[in-house]
Amino acid sequence: MTILEALANAASLIASRRQAAHLEGREEEENLWLYLRALSNFVHVTGQVYQFEDSLKAAVPSERPHASARLGTYKEMFAQRAVELLLKTLDKTSEPEQKQHVRLLISLLNFIADTGQLDEAGDFFSNQLEYAPVAIAHFTRHEEAEAWMRSAAEPPSPAYILIGDEYHQFWYRREDNTRGMYRDYPIESELEALTARGLPSQMSSFATRAEAEEWLMNYSAKPYAFVSIAGEHYFAVYHRSLKRHSLHHVASALEAWEEHKRAVEREAALEAAQSNGASE
After folding, report:
1. Quick check: is 260 in a domain?
2. Is residue 164 located within the same domain as residue 177?
3. Disulfide engineering: 30 pairs with which of 21, 52, 247, 280, CB 3.0-4.6 Å?
């Protein structure tokens, strides 16, 4: 089983436990499962899946998992309560496979604590709906991104990168050292929703992109804002980890999003037709 599959299984455990806590009105427990889901997402979007796998291999085997000493120093104590919940769940769970998922989540908490990322991960949990999808790197041209992808011994994966103003999903598979990237559209659905009833009647206007970027450095989008540049409407997206904005031409972005959705529909229809043909 790959580390990605193991994390997916742990995510299924989180989902079922969270739903049970919700249905039974255990609000604090539900929030802790949501916290654990956010931490798993944090490791994914920051491209640290294989670093986490390395920490698992380096850990000393023990009959009962330990909790990192750094968990108790976390100022909000949320991580400490989460690991206490996991240890309690471990004791009450008899199924070996479920126990393995719980152990993995304890190791995940320890990894984040031992690498000094508890505050950052906690901020991600508290504010993830207020932040743009995380991009870990920015490249001016596609050739630069390609060179980085080829030269990195073991690049962060999976993760978003920016090429110019466009999101690309980057992936690397340790098992066979394959890697690649493709254009992705993580903000276009948000843009579509925000413009469903038309563009804002008022927005800051600039003659050039450079003027808009200078203004945005002092008045960052949180995480999105509309601006006008030379009479054209743009969607500004603030990337906290990169401390920069990307600017998306509204009309072009929405057109690309519609084309992407049509392409996905065509592919789904083709797969359905092939599946039906094979079954006849």
Report:
1. no
2. yes
3. 21
